[in-house]
Amino acid sequence: MSLSNRHLLGLNGVPIEDIQLILDTATTFREVLERPIKKVPTLQGKTIVNLFFEDSTRTRISFELAQKRLSADTVNSTSSSSVKKGETFKDTVRNIEAMKVDMIIVRHKSAGVPQYLTRISKANIINAGDGLHEHPTQGLLDMYSIKERLGRLEGLNVCIVGDVAHSRVALSNIYGLKTMGAKVSVCAPATMIPMGIESLGVKIYTNIDEAIKRNDVLNILRIQLERNAGTRIPSLREYHNYFGITSERIEKNNKEILILHPGPINRGVEISSEVADGPYQVILDQVTNGVAVRMAVLYLLGTMH
Ligand code: NCD
């Protein structure tokens, strides 16, 4: 059993068999993470570079831990690189490649950078978030976490709530969940819903109570202030009043709901502290599962022939 593509650039167009294989493989690695010695020799001798040109805590540490737990040799590079000294991105990548690397994990503020890397490098490329485009491993770990709790993805109603317009997590969730047979919707102020999103087969809610009532899962997004999201809403307090997920709202509408959030969370904005620490959410399970899912992707790509 192997994946149909030697890169993971997004979940758009990834066949159901590939997603299934990654999620099943992640279950095996999830078990490894419970052992006292959380390490297997699977990627011994492989060299992986984490190229992060944009801020990241969770995703970068998660990839690095996943690589170490598979016994790969890993190197990290952040944006304080030669690009700042005037070297082109292409030359930087060629230099990294000349050091004989097998795999590159890339995060960049521009959409399409991972795709571009596949043309200038022979390494396997994994997208760790490109601009407003995709963040496939986040989509996969979200699906893994839903399945872990609810036992399936097919037929579930999943709503992505919040700053959909600036979110790469939203798109990867939409593509992945649709492939797995879930019914996907978004809920946000109209100014945060990208035009034409219905063409992806996504239902739109603009009333959060309605969305909570009609869904099994909410995946809550952060308001991306660094991407100027503040211009799309009157204030964060108003956003919280109309769209914030609070215990009161959940208890009034649907006590069975499962709450996900890719992090980082902004307490008191898109989610109240009570919900963020409460019984409906699986936010830290997502983080644990993220390591297992990334181990699965690294293993499946790293052992491909
Ligand atoms: C997300 C991202 O960077 O796209 N975070 C993450 O990787 N867990 C979402 C965000 O920054 O809000």
Describe the structure.
It is a single chain. The protein is of the alpha/beta class and 305 residues long. The chain folds into two domains: 16-135 and 288-302, Aspartate/ornithine carbamoyltransferase (Rossmann fold, 3-Layer(aba) Sandwich), CATH 3.40.50; 136-286, Rossmann fold (3-Layer(aba) Sandwich), CATH 3.40.50.1370. Helix content is 39%, strand content 15%. It is built from eleven helices and nine strands. The strands form two sheets. The chain has a five-stranded parallel sheet, with helices on both faces. A four-stranded parallel sheet has the order 2-1-3-4, with helices on both faces. Strand 5 (157-161), helix 6 and strand 6 (183-187) form a beta-alpha-beta unit. Helix 1 crosses helix 5 (136-150), helix 1 packs across helix 11 and helix 5 (136-150) packs across helix 6. The longest helix is centred in the C-terminal third of the chain and has 20 residues, at 283-302. It starts with 15 loop residues before the first helix and ends with a helix. The model has no long low-confidence stretch (mean pLDDT 96). It binds N-carbamoyl-L-aspartate (NCD).
